[in-house]
Amino acid sequence: MLTYLLRRILIAIPTFLGITLVTFLIINTAPGGPIEQKLQKIRMGGGEGGRGTGVSQEVLDGLAKQYGFDKPIHERYWIWLKNISRLDFGESFSYQEPAIDVISSKFPVSLQFGVASLILTYLICIPLGVKKAINAGGVFDQVSGIVLYIMVSIPPLVLGIFLIVWFAGGSYFDWFPIGGIKSDDYDTLTSLGKIWDRAYHFILPLTCYVMGGFTELTMLVRNSMLDVVKSDYVRTARAKGLENNSVYFKHALRNAMIPVATGLGGFLRVFLAGSLIVETIFNLDGIGLLGYQSILSRDYNVIMGLTFISAMLLLLGNIMSDFIYVMVDPRIDFK
């Protein structure tokens, strides 16, 4: 296993370099960079160049040096690699503060929704998938399947607008808030009141977060369970006269969870579980909205910081999935 781990780490290094290099090249060669945007502000303000129609070469050179564009692109990438080895992502062009601080300030919102959606999805989908497998082909299986496929076919944007119109004071019921993750008087509430206040604000956006993910995981559990119950040891357990609940939940469920458990390595993605659509609709200041705004403003250091973190979480999650696979199924031996 140790040899396999070392091999995966060695493979992860060029993968990481490829992800960051491609992203770096794209954002640095795209038009409308920070220098162009700064020049536009100068021209509109009528600053340099007399009547705001031109900018001196001295100003151009100063801006290039300020934003680090006075060096060739390969040198800039090498400097970026050396800086991130010290977790120095540079300064955000838009916020005028370290990019790592900007990203860190947006983490709590996306992390809370990521953790909540992960827990809620597994708590609902695993029992539901088992129930569908037990009643395979029955009325419950067919009706729930139709409902799940309807859920996965609804775009988050449409679902969010529907929830706001119906339940957040749009045209019908004014039951839930549509902005932020807590009330204005949150700090004055009791501990129990704070928990309820967070949950109250989470209901609508969390529904948008998890709605589409229910179908995939539920059907994975169902189909995996159906494969396992056809095994010889399950038929033997039934032949011994064991009750169905014991057969399904004690003997079959563990092996049926192998495909599901291997996906648990992806739980690291909850740290960057921001959704642009959901965060925009419900006015949540999280990672998804930050990434979108950074792309529009060409905030290169923030974009590369998010890319670095996303790539690391993806690679670590893949390695963790292999470890979980071995823990769940001892028959697996990576060499």
List keywords for this structure.
335 residues; single chain; 0% strand; 14 helices; mainly alpha; 2 domains; MetI-like fold
Can you tell me the CATH superfamily of the largest domain?
Answer: MetI-like
Averaged pLDDT, please? 81
* Count of distinct structural domains: 2
**What is the string of SSEs from the N terminus onward?**
HHHHHHHHHHHHHH
Strand tally is 0
Protein architecture, described:
With 335 residues, the chain is an all-alpha fold. It has 2 domains: 31-86, no CATH class; 102-328, Orthogonal Bundle (MetI-like fold). The protein has helices at residues 2-29, 34-45, 57-66, 73-84, 99-134, 139-153, 156-167, 191-228, 232-239, 244-256, 258-262, 276-281, 287-296, 300-328. The longest helix is centred in the middle third of the chain and has 38 residues, at 191-228. The radius of gyration is 26 Å and the shape is globular. The N and C termini lie close together (6 Å).
Per-chain topology:
Layout: H1 2-29, H2 34-45, H3 57-66, H4 73-84, H5 99-134, H6 139-153, H7 156-167, H8 191-228, H9 232-239, H10 244-256, H11 258-262, H12 276-281, H13 287-296, H14 300-328
Helix pairs in contact: 1-14, 5-8, 5-14, 6-8, 7-8, 8-10, 9-10
In brief:
It is built from 14 helices and no strands. By secondary structure, it is mainly alpha-helical. It has 2 domains: 31-86, no CATH class; 102-328, MetI-like (MetI-like fold).
